[in-house]
């Protein structure tokens, strides 16, 4: 069974709306493109490494439309490696509408998203989810993912759609490797889905080392 890897960019207050440009998702959001001024070579290398081994993309409709308008025209440029990857692998699109699927290798998923995602897992080894915040929230809620690559940027916006925006379910995650910080303060966190649900305890219990009369 293949792995589903979610790649997300978020602020300290976990806003993940429109990181790449002003036109990604502009309705009611004045900070489109907030990620661009904070990019550096370290974060860029981390993001590039995250694509290694990808043999399929799983995208929401809005992200797909942005990618389809950009990546087919980038081969031979500075983004050649990612362009070659994106233009070659199958692109699975989650949409309730009728998207233009003229980008080579594009396939619309059926109405039963959970079933469709499980079929993709049987077909591919490493499926990458990029952007696609609404889709990501569904995958998180349904626990239909294996790994979460999260880049947290050192800004607070106070407005915008967040990674966790209601409807989440209790979930355990395991940190896969030590956090890695870029010079500008961006932190890369790599988590894997773990079994079970979060446990609870009592911080005042004697074995927790609580101070007396605290």
TrEMBL record:
Listed GO biological process terms: riboflavin biosynthetic process
InterPro entries to which the protein is assigned, alphabetical: DHFR-like_dom_sf, RibDG_C
Bacterial bifunctional deaminase-reductase C-terminal domain residues: 9-176
GO MF annotation, one: 5-amino-6-(5-phosphoribosylamino)uracil reductase activity
Region annotated Disordered, chain positions: 195-214
Protein name: Dihydrofolate reductase
């Amino acid at each position: 069974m293949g792995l589903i890897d979610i790649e997300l960019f978020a602020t300290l207050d976990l806003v993940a709306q429109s990181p790449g440009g002003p036109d990604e998702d502009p309705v009611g959001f004045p900070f489109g493109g907030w990620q661009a001024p904070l990019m550096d070579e370290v974060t860029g290398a981390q993001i590039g490494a995250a694509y290694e081994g990808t043999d399929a993309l799983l995208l929401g409709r809005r992200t797909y439309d942005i990618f389809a308008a950009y990546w087919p025209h980038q081969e031979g440029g500075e983004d050649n490696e990612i362009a070659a990857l994106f233009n070659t692998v199958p692109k699975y699109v989650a949409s309730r509408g009728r998207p233009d699927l003229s980008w080579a290798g594009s396939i619309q998923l059926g109405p039963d998203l959970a079933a469709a995602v499980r079929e993709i897992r049987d077909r591919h080894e490493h499926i990458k989810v990029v952007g696609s915040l609404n889709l990501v929230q569904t995958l998180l809620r349904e626990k239909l993912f294996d790994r979460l690559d999260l880049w947290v940027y050192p800004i607070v916006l106070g407005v915008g759609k967040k990674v966790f925006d209601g409807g989440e379910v209790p979930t355990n995650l395991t940190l896969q490797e030590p956090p890695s910080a870029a010079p500008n303060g961006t932190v890369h966190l790599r988590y894997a889905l773990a079994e079970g649900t979060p446990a609870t305890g009592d911080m005042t219990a004697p074995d927790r080392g609580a101070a007396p009369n605290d």
